[in-house]
Amino acid sequence: MIGQWRLRAAFTARLSRMYGREVPAYAELVDVSREVNEDVLRARGAAAERLGSIGRVTAERHGAIRVGTPGELRQVARVFGALGMRPVGFYDLRDTAASALPVVSTAFRPVAEDELDRNPFRVFTSMLTVSDPRFFDADLRSRLTAFLDGRELFGPELLGLADRAEAERELPEADAERFLELAVQAFELSAEPIDRDWYAALERVSAVAADIGGVRSTHINHLTPRVLDIDELYRRMTARGIEMIDTIQGPPRWEGPDVLLRQTSFRALAEPRALRAADGTVTRGALRVRFGEVEARGIALTREGRALYDRLLGLVDERAAHRPAAERGEVARAVWTEHLPPTERELAERGLGFFTYHLVPGRPRKGRPATDLGALLREGWVRAEPIVYEDFLPRSAAGIFQSNLSSTGSRDGAREGSVYDAERLSGAMEREVLDPFTLYERQRDASLVRVARELDLDSVPS
To answer: Which coenzymes or cofactors are required (predicted)?
Structure first.
């Protein structure tokens, strides 16, 4: 019997091989990531594995896909449910970039700590907001709805196997092999000709809308390895002649703790596609929709830490507004140095970062330990281990999307947008969209309860 985590690991590996065949520059990105990780490990030793073992980092991937309707989102949730992945977080990208991005998103991933350690595969999944009148007028919305209702992304055999795997948390080997075969096929780039005029009509609104609603299948939009030094990877990819986007999205590189998520990518490549004209003739064309992304993950921030992060982004925008774009990184580093704690311990003491807490082994048990978490850290009773940020940043995701679009599309700012939130997305999938902060809090709090028990404290440290 093949358990869910083994299904997930096998799916991740096969998807990566498939995407490498379809997008050779991605395979080069994986090679460079591995080289950088090996070099960082040699240079830093054990410190390089502070935010995850090299085995986990090397195997780690996140993918991105796009679907068109609540029904399609519900089906893809069943496929990822088979892999032990649950929807975590709600991301509304519609107002986060200058380009038209008519999508809302969630991320499917494992949620238990041991499952993340085994294989932390994530899929950032976006759904087209067809009902939003800022992007789609009544006529286009009607045509788009009919088109989406007429396609099938996931066949009944795949969904049946997925439901079995989710319910039983495993599959017999032969069924597991068939499930993996069908699941990978579902995310391959289709060779079916694309209706050129229909695709162009959607592309005038948004290239993302065309990529979702202008074809009769879905596909992996990008696949993302994890790297320990994203700045060095950026330099090496550029030196190899791979055109990268202009910036690394997310927090700046600075001397203090790595937090949240930094991302960059190579630019979307012109891929040959078959295009069908109105008279039925098929010609060869090219579309730019897929790219290769890479990420560096840091420490998860608490609600207070995340609020501070968002304020700092605004401060960077303000200070960099009248400076050359090349100086933005310098501005951001100055803002980070001014406002963020320079050490992990201070990040923990101020309640800005998520950590698990553990007794320091071999410490002489003289006197009574304090009940204050900061004092326990300072006096050496406990140590803090960072919790890796497993999720995404809306502004960074939108920045990656926007950097790989050839046009800004169109959005009617005079119209009021339709309401999408986590509750609506949960209803669409018939499964709850989990709050990532709650997941991190549970992990942290469980460790504090354990510390209180081991130190025989009357209350849990805070």
So the answer is: Fe(2+)
